Amino acid sequence: MSLTNASPSRFDAPGHPPATTTEFQGVRSLHLGTSWVQGAMRLAKPDNIELEYVQMMMMWLLFNDRPRHIVQLGLGSAALTKFCYRRLPDARVTAVELNPNVIAICNAQFGLPPNDGRLNVMEMNAMDFVLDPANHGSVDILQVDLYDEEARGPVLDSPEFYQACFDCLSDGGIMTTNVFGDFANYDKNLQAMELVFDAVVWLPEVHDANIVVIAFKQSPVLDFSVLYERAGAIKKSLNLPAKSWVNGLKGWMLDQQ
Questions:
Q1: Using one digit for the tens of pLDDT, what is the confidence trace for 20-46?
Q2: How far is 247 from 232, CA to CA, in rounded Å?
Q3: Does the 48-238 domain belong in CATH 3.40.190.150?
């Protein structure tokens, strides 16, 4: 999430904020009718994850490299959804997005593939998805990035919401979430997650005050030699800066002592 100058390309079905794009130095950015950047794509590398904090949302790979079902709450520019779909061919990928304008612009301008046997982009409220008992226990990885056009903080951040996220996770499931906005949001969200999850870790902010949190249904054993080894494999196979994630986890551990 960051600020930039907005421009004309619009998808604006009524009842929801319009989805608009800007382009600068080869990067196309998504906006919801305001100057806040809600996602980005480098035109020369449309299936890569452009923004560093969005890359960090993939740090669950350090703990699970073979998820069966990945769910994204909040489609953004579809960067995470596309990456998981293209680069993790054994996984089913579900994305939940309330705003039909966002889905339309991702299909038209951000290279989002059509739904198929592995990919399901659903137009619905994320709260309805996580509260649905049919989804409980069915998700290995949950990625949460829920912002409206004002970007003051996550639109869903109650203990009830995070409990429902927890309920959706399978045994050993992991949630990553982006916390951004007014300073009070950080404590509110972290406390709500800590009420529910067995372990909650946050990494230092990397981009315009976005903080990425990783929350575990069951607390993992943090063996840093193993994590650095996994980080090397992730860098090699997926070209993600996973060593920096391990450094962040290590820094967090030292801060807690």
A1: 898 999 999 998 877 778 889 999 999
A2: 13
A3: no
